[in-house]
Amino acid sequence: MTWTRAFREVLRSGLKIEETRLEPLLALRTAVGVALVIGPALWLGSPAYAASAALGAFSAGGATFQRTWRPRKAIALGAGAGLALSTLVGYLAAGQLVTFLPLLALWTFGAGLAWAVGSTAGIIAATTVGSMLVTITLPTSVGRALEHAGIIALGGVVQAVLILLFPIRRWGAHRDALADALAAVADYARRLRHDPTARFDPEPLMTARDAAAVTPSQARTRPTVLHGPRGLAERIVPAIAALADPDVGAPAEGPGRDRARELLDAAADVLDAAARSIRRGTPVEVPPKTVDLLRGDEEHEVLEGPARQAAERLAALLGEALEIAECGNAHRRTPAQHGPAYVQFLVRPTMFRLLPVIVRAVRRELHHDSPVFRHAVRLAAVATLGYLIADRLPLGHGYWAPIASVMVMRPDFHRTYARAVARLAGTLVGVVLATGVVRTLGPDAHVFGALAVVSAGLSYTLIRTGYAYSQCFTAAYVVFLLGMGGQAWEQTVPERMVLTLLGGALAMLAYAVFPAWETPRLPERLADWLAANGRYAAAVLRNYAGPTRERRADMRSAQLASRKARAAWQEAYDRAKQEPVRPRGLTSREAEEAQEALKGFDRAATLMENRVPQDDNPFALEAEGLAKALETDTAQAAADMREHREPDWGRVEKALQVWEGAGARRPALRREADLQKRALEDLATAVSRTPLERDVGSVREEQRVREAMEAEGGGSEPAHRGG
Description:
Residues 688-723 are annotated as: Disordered. The protein is mainly alpha-helical. The chain has helices at 3-14, 24-44, 47-63, 72-92, 97-113, 119-135, 142-165, 172-194, 203-212, 216-219, 229-244, 255-280, 288-295, 305-328, 355-364, 371-392, 400-408, 413-441, 445-461, 467-484, 493-513, 522-545, 549-576, 588-609, 623-642, 650-661, 667-687, 691-712, and strands spanning 213-214, 346-347.
């Protein structure tokens, strides 16, 4: 993608309206928290105290809207504590540039590294930088700084208390994650009716699994309905895939295929009904006709062999899902359980035990090629440079430039540039509108305080609609706070616009100078996914040769590792498509073909998983040799791909020949093994082009891009070669 086209995509993304469900009750509760600290601070203190209180309550409230599975009140308390600490530490070092600049650089570097823990931690850490830059201008002594820090922390406490006293859709995010997973499996069942070899994207199941991890205290209050359906969804996926596949399941045409389509449609209806029930907490409503279709008529059943086994297994799993959904929506909680033998939930570390996890996550990112490490370096450099430049300009409120940079910067190119555009547009509109209101109403601290609360509520309401639209009301909120403090708009509005533009420009320039492109890393991500897929396929095959409890656990662990590698590839691939960088190692066409090949390989392993023996009796001893060959060849092929060598599947071919020579036992399993071999051959075809072919493909790809842009009326320019 050229820079011109990349900028066009950035503009479109930055100003895009996201079609997400609004949460006005959550926004109202959080805005009330802001009002509860602004009002008393104005009445009992001063506008300066009210500004500190408003910052703490607003930032802590905004943190609770981030995507996280921890309790919202814990997030509010943590955000309030971080804001208070940054304010106090910043004030102690704010006397001289020689002391404050190193602190600012160190603090922003740490805020950048917080992305190693997750996006929520990174965003909250960025808000603490803003608190350090703004509120250190308010106190006049160490004692006053302590008071302001306490008031800021109080804002987080107020938000946490409101969450505790007025819960809204408790466990709602967890219910949504589980319901989305079931709905995704339902959609997959419907797609299989028309495309029997369709691929399944496991991302919703991964999200549901992440949501299922809870602390011991959460486990004691989690609704029963959030326990079993996720595991059932995991088992339903291979069952419907095996039923639909024409090679190992229902025949491609005839009454058997019609019966398979009926079952798939019924499965989709049941899963959708269970998803609605879990999401809303209402009874399950399934049409009687759907239940009759699942039961079938044994005397006139047209499915035979593996297809019939898959149909029976699917009906049993769906019945279990309905039973859990019906029982789980009663107002019951998980009984308290003690001892390691009774731990039946995925453990999430408590806030007090999170430190070692954070340390390990950060240490993994402390290398030059890490996107998180590069983001931390950019953040520290831009914050200090922006502060220095703004301090030398004949403008007040110089902290707005580094704040704008810190709040828009992300570890990847597209989001950084899109947020910079969105922040500038939102700030411009918000400041102009709020300024007009300030000039019309005249100085009145109480009126401006009320308007600040209203702006905060609107910002919260639109926080998931689009950054530009939320930022519009955030900018208005800041203008009203300044008006509440008695500062003339002429001294703030022009400065804010100029400094916001400066901060956004610095953020965009920093990424261009010190990027963290994903495009050059695509071959490595693909190799990681191949190796993980090979281990998963081998683990499935070993359960046929010697099924044991330990091997079933290894299979599940390998499956999770494969999904994690697939998610890492998908994220890198999606980012690479938005980067103005010429493909290196893999062209877009090669990457797409390789991705489809590995999805096919993963699908074959999923089909195998459907009939894995549940007892300890060997099912197919010949599968052990193929398992070893698959694991060895995929690991070696992954290493070859990193070194740009052609992969070789010699061991796999030899193992299949040995299997064939032993007799045609387990034909369904043998056909699934052939599907895996075919997928590996497709992968080799995708990545085994010569350098000349790759260069020609890259040139043709750029030519197609230029022609498409010319057809749209746009220009073109040489692709960036940075790395």
